[in-house]
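May I ask you for just one protein sequence along with its backbone structure tokens in two labelled lines?

_____
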Amino acid sequence: MNTDKILAESIAKEYAPKNNSKIVALKKLDNKAKLPATIFTYTFGIISALVAGAGMSLAMQVIGSGVAGFVFGIVLGVIGFAGCGINYPLYKKMLENGKAKYAYEIVELARQISEGK
């Protein structure tokens, strides 16, 4: 077996034009359905974690001092943890809505690909 030939063919395959543009279109539609939910979830999760961390720092009086800082820290921490807690259900709902929005197009394109049209 000529390994040089196999290597050359695999490299050439990477640079060859893609004939099956329906697969590329299907992947783009799938990404378009899922990406907004993913971006929102990461952003909301990071912000919620930072809010919870700031609240814990205030409550433990690492930053700030006094009873008002302690109470505000607890409130802020609870808000941050609540945000972390609702993040996954929000993601599931947004993903479901995104999939429903593009479901018809994705199913039709997948059907065309599977039938070989």
In short: The chain has a mean pLDDT of 90. The CA atoms of residues 1 and 7 lie 11 Å apart. DSSP finds three helices and no strands in the chain. The two ends are 36 Å apart (CA to CA).
